[in-house]
Amino acid sequence: MPAYYDDNFGFWEDMDDPDNQEHYRRTQKTNVLKKCKGCGRKVRIQPDYAYCNGCATKIERGMDI
Fold first, then answer.
1. pTM of the prediction?
2. In this model, does residue 1 exceed pLDDT 80?
3. Which residues are CB-contacts of 33 (< 8 A; sequence separation ≥ 6)?
4. Over 2-64, what HEC string results?
5. Distance of alpha carbon 41 from alpha carbon 14, whole angstroms
6. Are 42 and 54 in contact (CB under 8 A)?
7. 39 belongs to a structural domain
8. Domain count within the chain
9. Mean pLDDT over all residues of the chain?
10. Whose CA is closest to 48, among 60, 63, 28, 34?
11. ∠ CA 32-53-45, rounded to 5°
12. Domain that holds residue 8
């Protein structure tokens, strides 16, 4: 199974499921290129997101970014 990754959600699992594949494709189509407020990298994320998945995970774990 190929690996699916994006800066919104990280690694996507269970991509044999057609519903997951469709959700992934839909998400990719609506991503925009913007600067992550945590790490400063240019990432493709949803318009209303401010942080990439890596930074969001760190914040959720109580780490300072």
1. 0.81
2. no
3. 42, 43, 44
4. CCEEECCCEEECCCCCHHHHHHHHHHHHHCEEEECCCCCCEEEECCCCCCCHHHHHHHHCCCC
5. 28
6. no
7. yes
8. 1
9. 92
10. 34
11. 5
12. 4-60
Q: Let me know if residue 65 belongs to a domain.
A: no
- Per the listing, tokens 């190929």 go with 2
2 pLDDT above the threshold of 90: no
> What values do phi and psi take at 13, rounded to 5?
-110, 165
pLDDT tens figures, 31-55? 999 999 999 999 999 999 999 999 9
Does any domain span residue 36?
A: yes
Amino acid at site 13: E
Sorting pLDDT into bands at 50, 70 and 90, what band is 12? confident
38 domain residue, yes or no: yes
Judged against a pLDDT cut of 80, whether residue 27 lies above it is answered with yes
- The label of the residue with tokens 């890596």 reads 54
